[in-house]
């Protein structure tokens, strides 16, 4: 099929109408002038059609190039771009507040509506929800993430160590660093304070379960008692009759 059927049809109609008018027009200067005028009008229309076709091809090529650029970008480019623009706006706002002698956090809170504040608070609570105990690995991972979020690096000490050790500060598989690092007194004190804080919090949340002296003793140690309690919770209603028969000695 022809790439531009409308253009070819227009050209064909122009050519046929031109031939018919040349046949109808008789000889004479007036008829020749009219025919020449009509011919110029048709050429002008043809040039306009040609320019429209050229503009359409040009716009199509530009759109193909832009689409190719968008496809080569990372999938989350729009989110990253929006994030960078937002960070630039925040930096500009901080500079403006510093120039006026105002506190940026206070100015930001004055511009936040109550609905946005409640929504962000709910989102913050959902960020690390406590789903309860599932296994020891999950509990240990949750504890590790909580502790690492509290770490505040000492950049000044890091710069001093980098000047002191140079490339040796970044060990490789061939590096021997055993016994070469001596922690500072401030670091040891910080670690001790953090451990004491963990112990205090652990004692606050741990509670001793009440012990029932009249309950049946069907365990040999504390760990076996916990296991029996879990088994009773899940399978007690299915094994109640078997347990009674074993206790009475009437089990078959």
The amount of helix comes to: over 70%
- Give the CA-based shape: elongated
Which regions are unreliable across 5 or more consecutive residues at pLDDT < 50?
Answer: 1-5
How many E strands? 0
Q: Strand share of the residues?
A: under 5%
pLDDT averaged residue by residue: 79
Strand and helix order: HHHHHHHHH
- Structural class, from helix and strand content? mainly alpha
Head-to-tail CA distance between termini:
91 Å
Query: Over the alpha carbons, how many angstroms does the gyration radius reach?
Result: 42 Å
Helical run tally: 9
Largest sheet composition: none
> Which oligomeric form is depicted?
single chain
In brief, what are we looking at here?
This protein has nine helices and no strands. It has 252 residues and is mostly helical.
Structure description:
- One of its GO terms (cellular component) is catalytic step 2 spliceosome.
- Belongs to the SYF2 family.
- Residues 1-38 are annotated as: Disordered.
- It is found in: Nucleus.
- By secondary structure, the chain is an all-alpha fold.
- The chain contains nine helices and no strands.
- α1 runs antiparallel to α2 (29-72).
- 0% of the residues are buried.
- Residues 1-5 have low confidence and may be disordered.
